[in-house]
Amino acid sequence: MEDFWQNHFNVFAGKAAVRWYIPSYERDVIRKNALGNFRDLLLGTAQHPAMLFYLDNFESVAPNAQAANARPGQLQRLVQEGGLTPRVREQMKRQQGLTDAEIDQRIARIKTGAQNQQNRAKRGLNENYARELMELHTMGVDSGYSQKDIVEVARAFTGWTIADPRGYRRIAADEIKGTEGQRLARLQRMPGVPDNIESGQFYFNERWHDNGPKTILGQKVDEGGIKDGLKVIDILVKSPATAKFIARKLCVKFVNDNPDEAIVNRVAAAFSRSNGDIRTTLRAIFTDKEFFAPENYRAKIKTPFELAVSAIRTIGADTTASPAVVAMLNKLGEVPYGYQAPTGYPDTAEDWVNTGALLERLNFTMALAANQIPGTRVDLKRFDAPDKAAVLNKAIAVVLDNDISPATRATLLKQVEQPLPEVKAPPEVDDEAGEPVTRRPAGQRGGQNRQARLLAPTGNPEVFKVVSLVLGTPEFQRQ
Predict the structure, then answer these.
(1) Which of 218, 322, 323, 412 is the most exposed place for a label (fewest CB within 10 A)?
(2) 86 and 10, same domain (yes or no)
């Protein structure tokens, strides 16, 4: 379920600061709420910096933001008009008891505020999160909302942002200690950010929020402040379209790639009756007659990530999840948080099953069984036997629990007599950006020619050949 929700609420590790927010995103939002209530999960993603940064809502500002309309004070006007004359500076020192340093600090804050105001003017209203919230997270495409609804939802989420999203304030404070560092840290803080908010935390900026009335899906939203966004979440969670959209995706995950409309409706009803309780919704799937129908038994093909994890577990391998493992996952096509589009990785056979993909799966099982992946080790002594046929029988019993068709067994008997091709090392993934280096132009640091390191094969060649072939069978490719 964590894997399911991570793709449903996808964020991309390769987008700037998102990579630093992902550990908290997975631990504190996805894993925490994977079997809880959908509203809590939805709200958690909406307020987490990973999602706010990925879909740019942390920069979404109402066109009529209060800070932009604030009347400038006397000192602000003087700064805007060209600065302070020595005479005015001396007058301020006498009348207000200020030092030159304190006046300079005020001027610096005014200039920083002016720059922030210009940035807000450039940002304006951002519709990215509002669109994906309705299309991908809740109601689904073509479910009755309009472009006007998207704009209204975007207005409701203005001010949902991140304190010091890229860590500049913390860097300034760390690099320059003492009073000067504290002063720079204050200048990096955006207007309206409370003093007790740490860099990288969610907060609601009232000054950026559009407090005007909104109409979303025919319902009036005029709660004011952060409650506007909370009201939108309630509206979307209670929508029948959301219940059906979530039900369909769960049925695709657990039943088959094209679930019957009847089971989707029954699961959607359970979602609605339970106010989005995920356990209740799953129970409706796992107790439904369609879930146990013969045609749905092992109807799902494993995604590349599922294939890799199940292969490691099935043969009892130990892994450190090293960069080499990640590189192999990248070549298979599914590195966690490596999908750039907000849809997340697909979950149907047509997206994963083709000749090239199946070859890469076999390459992975070969490298795994032969102990070629650094940081991943397996002892295959339990598969030892006097001859190839006996080794094959042991592998079929352990890996497939003897659930194998006569045609597959016959094919394996032929394949064990053939030499296995050499496994080529895949391109390494970038250890800083969290994305494959093949996405970078050649010639840049971490360019296209860098390969992940694979070890020389170890163990009994006949044993690891048989085990890798069994891991590559159609039966093992199915859930």
Answers:
(1) 218
(2) no
Mean pLDDT score of the chain: 86
Strands, E assignment, 43-165: 160-162
Residue 439 pLDDT more than 70?
A: no
The C-alpha atoms of residue 298 and residue 291 are separated, in whole angstroms, by: 10
Q: Are 176 and 184 a contacting pair, CB within 8 Å? A: yes
Q: How far, in Å, are 86, 314, 347, 477 from residue 298 at the CA level?
A: 82, 17, 14, 10
436 and 467 in a single domain? The answer is yes
Predicted confidence band at 431 (pLDDT cuts at 50, 70, 90)?
very low
Q: What is the DSSP letter of 27?
A: I
| Domain count across the chain | 4
**Of 80, 95, 116, which residue sits at a domain end?**
116
DSSP state of 363: H
Q: Which domain holds residue 288?
A: 239-296
Q: Do 157 and 214 have their domain in common?
A: yes
| Mean pLDDT, residues 301-321 taken together | 96
Q: Are 62 and 210 in contact (CB under 8 A)?
A: yes
Please give the Cα distance from 278 to 282 (Å, whole number): 6
Whether 53 and 80 map to the same domain: the answer is no
Percent of the chain past pLDDT 70, that is, above it, reads 82
